[in-house]
């Protein structure tokens, strides 16, 4: 739900203020490590495709903001990617 609200807010701001909006996936900020989805399920990125994968051991990752933002890592295709059904 938080992703939907954030997306709607930012998209509305972009349209009303005529500001270009760019986005990227979280894997750009955690060295392409698995991102927890729920319980033992994680999002993983393989060959530029995001999918889910189960892990028996908990996967940890650290998110770090880059010192320099490279535009090549961002896209104007910013609609959220919904893989999991609503809980």
How would you characterize the overall build of this protein?
The protein contains 1 helix and 3 strands; from the N terminus they run H-E-E-E. The protein is an alpha+beta fold and about 90 residues long. Strands 1-2-3 form a 3-stranded antiparallel β-sheet, with no helix packed on it. The chain is globular.
Write the SSE topology.
Layout lengths: L1 H16 L17 E4 L2 E6 L2 E6 L33
At a glance:
The protein has 87 residues and is of the alpha+beta class.
List keywords for this structure.
87 residues, alpha+beta, three-stranded antiparallel beta sheet, 1 helix
> What's the mean pLDDT score?
89
The total beta strand count reads 3
Question: How large is the share of residues in beta strands?
Answer: 15-25%
- Give the helix/strand class: alpha+beta
Main β-sheet, spatial strand arrangement: 1-2-3
